[in-house]
């Protein structure tokens, strides 16, 4: 299915919390904010139950990390012509790096790693 990805593009398979997925083609110059807006503007019909009120609350998660809006796919060194999987979640704000440690200390007292449930 994803074998027809153009060599200069990146195919993103976005997964919702519900488990629904959809694939979108992007250029390496597209930022996380561009992707959120594109997905919002082209919201899949079968994602109707997950529709959000604004593209500004859509967040991408790649390898367990929230991507800030200005990060481009090229900066992540994603492979061209291939499919990369990311999670798409609705969230008002991104966690601050310093508040992250505080929350984890309460849980384990040792880990500074992100845990996404």
Automatic annotation (TrEMBL):
Residues 10-88 form the Ubiquitin-like domain. One of its GO terms (cellular component) is plasma membrane. The keyword Protease does not apply. Its main location: membrane. It comes from the Eukaryota. It is a lipid-anchor. It holds the Pfam family Rad60-SLD_2. Keywords: Cell membrane, Lipoprotein, Membrane, Methylation, Palmitate, Prenylation. This is Ubiquitin-like protein. CDD domains: Ubl_UBL3 (cd17048). SUPFAM superfamilies: Ubiquitin-like (SSF54236). It is found in: Cell membrane.
